[in-house]
Amino acid sequence: MGKRASKRNTFNYNLDRKKLKKKMIKKYKPRIECDQIRKAWNPHRTAKQNMRDMGLAFGGKGVLPITSKAGDEPVDQVMKPYVVREMEEEANLPRKDTTTCSTDLIEYVQHMIREHGEDYKAMARDEKNYYQDTPKQIKRKVDLYKRCHAEEHATFLASLQAQTSS
C-alpha cells in the first residue's frame, strides 16, 4: 500500500460567506409566530428574562412558587402587561368554523338520509356503504354534514318533505 495523497483545502469562490452566515443566524433564531410576543421581544435579553418581563412562564420549573414560612418573598413585577392582555383579547375573539365536507361525503350522506332517514343500522347495511362504516361512524358523518352545512341540510330536508307530501 502506497501513501494516500491528501486533498488540500482550497477556497470555494462559488460560496457567498455573507449569505451563509445570514442563513445560519436565521436558522438558529427562528421566527416567533405570536405577534404580541414578537413585538415585545428584546433581543439583548435571554428568553427567560423576556418571558418574565411579559408575565409569561418559560418552562415548567418555577411556575408555581413554593411558599416559605417567612412569607416575605419579593414578587416579580411584570414590565410588559400589555402582552398578556392582547393575547387574552385575541383568544376571546370568536373563531369561524372552517371545517367543510367533501362533495363525495355530502352526496353519500344525502343518499343515506334520503333512503333511510335516521336509521343508522339500515344505513350500515346499505350497498352504497362501500367502506363498511359502522352505524356510529355514519352518525358522525351525518352530524358533521349537519354542522358544516346547516343551511344546505335544512333545504335538503325541506325538499324531502315536499317530495313525500306530494
UniProtKB/TrEMBL annotation:
InterPro entries: Ribosome_biogenesis_Nop16
Record field: transmembrane: none
Cellular localization per UniProt: Nucleus, Nucleolus
One record GO biological process: ribosomal large subunit biogenesis
Pfam family, one: Nop16
One GO CC annotation: nucleolus
Keyword tags: Nucleus
Family: Belongs to the NOP16 family.
PANTHER family assigned to the protein according to its UniProt record, in alphabetical order: HSPC111 PROTEIN-RELATED (PTHR13243), NUCLEOLAR PROTEIN 16 (PTHR13243:SF1)
Protein name: Nucleolar protein 16
Lineage: Eukaryota, Metazoa, Chordata, Craniata, Vertebrata
